[in-house]
Amino acid sequence: MSIRQEKFAGIIQQHLSDIFLREGNTFNNAFITISKVEISPDLGFAKVFLSFLNATNKVELLKLINVHNKEIRHKLAIKIKNQARIVPELTFLVDESLDYVFHMEEVMKKVKEEDENKGK
């Protein structure tokens, strides 16, 4: 990714984080964080990777966010109007890396407990 894409991705991530923070109650009071934004070389498309905390059904929440995609993009356009000429098309995806980290922590705890039990 070029420096230009990285800077633009940072701007998009910052402003989308602010939008989700302020509009959190619209999305079932789930805490939504943006873990990564990938921008196409022409800056016209953005993949936004979301992590959900306190969410019971991530698939339904992602569908709800996609229903509000145009509204979110419009709010983003208002925020970046002085920083960018292009407002990218947004594609929201679930980032599973946080779930993987929690899963690995649980596995490590179980292994540690088993080792402690064998030592006794």
Write the element-wise H/E pattern from the N-terminal end onward. Answer: HEEHHEH
Task: Using the 3D structure, state the CATH architecture.
Answer: 2-Layer Sandwich
Structural class assignment: alpha+beta
User: What is the helix tally?
Assistant: 4
Mean pLDDT across residues:
85
Q: How many domains, as an integer?
A: 1
Helix content: 40-55%
How many angstroms separate the termini?
53 Å
**Low-confidence stretches at least 5 residues in length (pLDDT < 50)?**
none
Question: What would you give as the CATH superfamily?
Answer: K homology (KH) domain
Q: Please list the strands of the largest sheet in the order they lie side by side.
A: 1-2-3
Structure description:
The chain is α+β, with helices and mostly antiparallel strands. It has one domain: GMP Synthetase, Chain A, domain 3 (2-Layer Sandwich). It is built from four helices and three strands; from the N terminus they run H-E-E-H-H-E-H. The protein has a three-stranded mixed sheet with strand order 1-2-3. The mean pLDDT is 85.
